[in-house]
């Protein structure tokens, strides 16, 4: 049986890391596309040359021609520009919307059966626009944000509690931005919810609130430290987790920016929710009951995403 084909659209910081991880995990053959001449070719060659030491079997090639993504099983999209210090993700909207148009058309023409994972920011609006431009089914186009946001939350919690990250689960809903909704009562250490851990004296409510805020600001903290560009190791790892769930039909329960129609009272929009990812793409949206305070946070986040989608429609009337 032929190996799966993974197309990476964008060969920047995240794109290169995705290529390396996909090869090391032997998820399939990798084609790296970028408009910058030489960048995808150079990164692909460099990564291919790590193969003998790593011992992986994966073909690795760079290209500037969309025709080369033909037949891809998975496309992961990072094309566009990242934030600079002081910028919000939303500041990227105008420039990255144009990029989504060309990427969406490229995928529509050459890889219409792929499972498409968007990473480009502002995430919830860009994944919506990419779906519109590509015309692919909604269950096959998804945004990566919740896996990363919950990984950040899990990391901070594991350090606070002095326990393995493997035993910490975390739950983050809503848009990938300042309004994201980390849910403490659905986040646990080995099944013990965070509010119980506060009662048990493992941490204080004040410290927990600080961790939740640090999770919300997780991307900006790294942008501020790096000064050029934004986070790329953990974002790439998160997207690879989603791609693997699809390629291996793992039925993983992962928070993603998925198309929600009906659940959470939403009438068809992309926003961060728990999903089941398997061979059918987004096979299910998991609807949980929110308490009034959580619902209020979710509503605020949904409104922020709706505002970004409206801004996209104002910029590109073909989306209206
Ligand atoms: P960067 O290293 O600049 O790579 C972007 C690549 O896109 C560059 O190689 C460009 O040449 C290429 N590119 C630009 N326009 C096009 C085009 N029209 N077609 C194809 N390629 C193009 O950025 P990065 O890899 O650090 O980040 C990529 C995106 O991911 C940015 O928008 C970030 O804001 C976003 N990001 C999202 C998250 C999430 O959690 C959602 C986290 C981190 C970064």
UniProtKB/TrEMBL annotation:
Entry's Gene Ontology BP terms: lactate metabolic process; tricarboxylic acid cycle
Q: Does the keyword Oxidoreductase apply?
A: yes
Q: What class of enzyme is it?
A: oxidoreductase
Binding-site list for NAD(+): 10-15, 34, 96, 119-121
Q: Where is the Lactate/malate dehydrogenase C-terminal domain?
A: 148-306
Catalytic reaction equation(s):
(S)-malate + NAD(+) = oxaloacetate + NADH + H(+)
Give the Pfam families listed for this entry.
Ldh_1_C (PF02866), Ldh_1_N (PF00056)
Which keywords does UniProt give here?
NAD, Oxidoreductase, Tricarboxylic acid cycle
Question: What's the EC number here?
Answer: 1.1.1.37
The Lactate/malate dehydrogenase N-terminal domain covers 5-143
Q: Which residues bind substrate?
A: 83, 89, 121, 152
Q: What domain of life does the UniProt record list for this protein's source?
A: Bacteria
Q: Where is the active site?
A: 176 (proton acceptor)
Which GO molecular function terms does the record list?
L-lactate dehydrogenase (NAD+) activity; L-malate dehydrogenase (NAD+) activity
Q: Which NCBIfam families match?
A: MalateDH_bact (TIGR01763), PRK06223.1 (NF004863)
**Family listed:** Belongs to the LDH/MDH superfamily. MDH type 3 family.
**Function per UniProt:** Catalyzes the reversible oxidation of malate to oxaloacetate.
Full protein name: Malate dehydrogenase
- Give the organism, scientific name: Paragemmobacter aquarius
């Amino acid at each position: 049986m032929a190996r799966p084909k993974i197309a990476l659209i964008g060969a920047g910081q995240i794109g290169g890391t995705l290529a390396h991880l996909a090869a090391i995990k032997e998820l399939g053959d990798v084609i790296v596309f970028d408009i910058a001449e030489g960048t995808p070719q150079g990164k692909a060659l460099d990564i291919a040359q790590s193969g003998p030491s790593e011992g992986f079997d994966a073909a690795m090639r760079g290209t500037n021609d969309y025709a080369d993504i033909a037949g891809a099983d998975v496309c992961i999209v990072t094309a566009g520009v990242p934030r600079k210090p002081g910028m919000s993700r939303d500041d990227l909207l105008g420039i990255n919307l144009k990029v989504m148009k060309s990427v969406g058309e490229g995928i529509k023409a050459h890889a219409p059966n792929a499972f498409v994972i968007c990473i480009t920011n502002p995430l919830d609006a860009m994944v919506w626009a990419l779906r519109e431009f590509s015309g692919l089914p909604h269950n096959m186009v998804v945004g990566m944000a919740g896996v990363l946001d919950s990984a950040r939350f899990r990391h901070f919690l594991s350090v606070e509690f002095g326990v393995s990250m493997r035993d910490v689960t975390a739950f983050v809903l809503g848009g990938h931005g300042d309004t994201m909704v980390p849910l403490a009562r659905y986040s646990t250490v080995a099944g013990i919810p965070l509010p119980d851990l506060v009662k048990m004296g493992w941490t204080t409510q004040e410290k927990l609130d600080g961790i939740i805020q640090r999770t919300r600001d997780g991307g900006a903290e790294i942008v501020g430290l790096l000064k050029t560009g934004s986070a790329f190791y953990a974002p790439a790892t998160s997207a690879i987790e989603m791609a693997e769930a699809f390629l291996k039909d793992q039925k993983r329960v992962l928070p993603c920016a998925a198309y929600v129609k009906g659940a959470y009272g939403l009438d068809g929009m992309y926003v961060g929710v728990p999903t089941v990812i398997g061979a059918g793409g987004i096979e299910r949206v998991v609807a949980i009951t929110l308490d009034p305070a959580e619902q209020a946070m979710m509503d605020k986040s949904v409104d922020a995403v709706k505002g970004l989608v409206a801004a996209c429609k104002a910029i590109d009337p073909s989306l209206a």
